[in-house]
Amino acid sequence: VGPKREVAECKEKFASSVDPTVSQTFMLDRVFNPERKSLPPMRGFKYSSWSPLGCDANGRCLLAALTMDNRLTIHANLNRLQWVQLVDLTEIYGERLYEASYKLSKADAPRGELGDFSEFQRRHSMQTPVRMEWSGICTTQQVKHNNECRDVGSVLLAVLFENGNIAVWQFQLPFLGKESITSCNTIESGITSPSVLSWWEYEHNNRKMSGLIVGSAFGPVKILPVNLKAVKGYFTLRQPVVLWQEMDQLPVHSIKCIPLYHPYQKCSCSLVVAARGAYVFWCLLLISKAGLNVHNSHVTGLHSLPIVSMTADKQNGTVYTCSSDGKVRQLIPIFTDVALKFEHQLIKLSEVFGSVRTHGIAVSPCGAYLAVITTEGMTNGLHPVNKNYQVQFVTLKTFEEAAAQLLESSVQNLFRQVDLTDLVRWKILKDKHIPQFLQEALDKKIESCGSTYFWRFKLFLLRILYQSMQKAPSEVMWRPSHEDAKILISDSPGMGSTEDDQEEGTSKQASKQSLCDTGKGMDIDDTADDSLPQSSDIGGREPMEEKLLEIQAQIEAVEMHLTREHMKRVLGEVYLHTWITENTSIPTRGVCDFLMSDDGYDDRTARVLIGHILKKMNKQTFPEHCSLCKEILPFTDRKQAVCSNGHIWLRCFLTYQSCQSLVYRRCLLHDSIARHPTPEDPEWIKRLLQGPCTFCDSPVF
Spans of biased composition, class Polar residues (predicted)? Predict the structure, then answer.
């Protein structure tokens, strides 16, 4: 809010002021005193918001976090299980305000000095965030120097401040840090005591409209237009639209915007729901020839206590609300000729978890699970002494519904539907077989369209089936082993060792060897005793082993099909982006030979493509060479390359190049490895290296 020395002097002045309206207001406000010695420290988070998928360098989500001391930062999961702070937006916004003399526009009249308490409050309130929300990803075309057009993705982050202003940040994707910030515009909402914020995104006649829905602690709700000249293809409202204007002192707690299709009007519409006290306020927005039609009302009789959390399933428009007494309501919108109505039913968590208090709910992206934060409820009329917070998961879909949704999905990405695949995984692990209806439906899909998505789905089912038939490990997989892998180092030139050291090392090695032998013997016995068929004769175990071998063969066949399909894609990129006899770092000739090495594989598309590529290569082979001994690396295996001297290099599953470095990436489920892009790589190879795993759709780290 100003120079550090001047701020410190002003704080001392306000704290010791003889005017109680100044001193008490200053002392009781934690925004002014985040580190007051007599008060508990401001630790923890006020609010967090997840961006859409595809915003960080790995194609995953960014996390905007608002701390208790009013600092807004953006974090990314750049490496596996490691979160990194990319930017501090509070600091950047404060610098911008300082440079502009704390004025939103040049035409504003000059304000008072920092020593004036009202000015001190104004400078704090104009940069104290209340809420922040991400927009959807918008794609624009950027013209390069050679007149080529490339798609550039961007995302908007709206930040609502205490004084009602909204800062709209525009970030270029993938978001890497401060250099990815494109612009920052401030909008004056005119709402006093703002409490909540949400994006309004509406698509009408292939034109996307956007705006910001702002709710007040006093009750009003309205949509503000967002004028962004830099974002092409986006339109906004001409003027603000008031959805609810009564100052009825019912604070707006949460707002959700759900895109729906109106079956009677035969057009898309937008449903806005807001939790106000114990009621749900809804507003149906529909654009017709007459303009913007607004229908609104309240749903009453849901809860006896105020709503503490609300979430919505954007797949079907179902809304879930909860109050602190452990009751969750499911609201299903049903369209009528004019507007809509809600059917609601009660979900009693006490019947599932016992007596609990609920603090928040969230629905998974595809609506398979409802996550509930709970603590112990009252026992014999008494509150518990300690609070133990737990996250409980309630299934909202059956296995059959999840399987049908995966088969008819328009997303065609297993990673983005991981909550649905988790329901399917649980069912197969429990029953130890793939249901017949799912197997038949999947085979029909593969025969009719042949999309690699259904092949990946089949691979997922086979892997889970194989896992369900294996013996459960005797130890917990995540628990680290504390055994030291010690070996005896024999006498070598330049390394002296005494006889005592050798004897000690020999005894240690012998004891470890005996332990290993004993462990191996125990494993063999355990395998014999704990085999799945639970029969003691050898003949009972043989069918299980044959079944496992059969499933393993099916898994390898599906993996080989997916590998060949991706090889065809890589060869297509090579053909489109290379000149005659041009050497690329991709082992083109090796991939061609690998595809044609199997006599049983007869793909006319692949043969024609390989013929064109070989004609372009003009009898050149361009083999890869081992970086250690300079010998040729033959392409005999899709997973690794072995030179004549026995040096083994893993192959990148995205480009089939050998990863001859100590650092490489791996997919989230550890299916495959990929190399890092280098500055020498052309754009089309860098684009290939940005792809997900070809087996499980997971991002690569």
Answer: 507-516
Are 246 and 154 found together in one domain? no
| Cα(257)–Cα(253) distance, integer angstroms | 14
Percent of the chain residues past pLDDT 90, beyond the cut: 51
Residue 684 vs residue 231, higher pLDDT: 684
For residue 474, count CB atoms less than 10 angstroms from its CB and return exposed for 0-12, middle for 13-18, buried for 19 or more: exposed
- The residues that bridge with 62 in the sheet, in sequence order, are 76
Q: In total, how many domains does the chain have?
A: 4
Amino acid identity at 279: Y
Written as six digits, the tokens of 318 are 């179902």
Q: Given a cut of 90, is residue 222 above it in pLDDT?
A: yes
Instruction: Note whether 275 and 412 are same-domain residues.
Output: no
Q: List the one residue out of 91, 281, 300, 298 whose CA is nearest residue 177.
A: 91
> In the structure encoding, which two tokens stand for residue 579, read together?
């000149």
Cβ atoms within 10 Å of 579's Cβ, excluding its own:
6
Exposure letters 56-84 (e unless 16+ CB within 10 A, then b): bbbbbbbbbbbbeebbbbbbbbeeeeeee
Q: What confidence tens digit (pLDDT) does each residue in 538-556 have?
A: 555 678 888 999 999 999 9
**Residue 480 CB partners (closer than 8 Å, separation 6+):** none
234-236 vs 207-216, strand pairing mode: parallel
3-state secondary structure 338-368: CCEEEEEEEEECHHHHCCEEEEEEEECCCCC
Helix-, strand-, coil-residue percentages of the chain, each rounded to 5: 30, 30, 40
Identify whether residues 335 and 416 lie together within a single domain. no
pLDDT for 488: 47
Nearest Cα residue to 152 out of 171, 136, 169, 167: 171
The two three-digit tokens of residue 329, written as one number? 């309501």
pLDDT at residue 487 greater than cutoff 60: no
- Rounded Cα distance, 181 and 164, in Å: 23
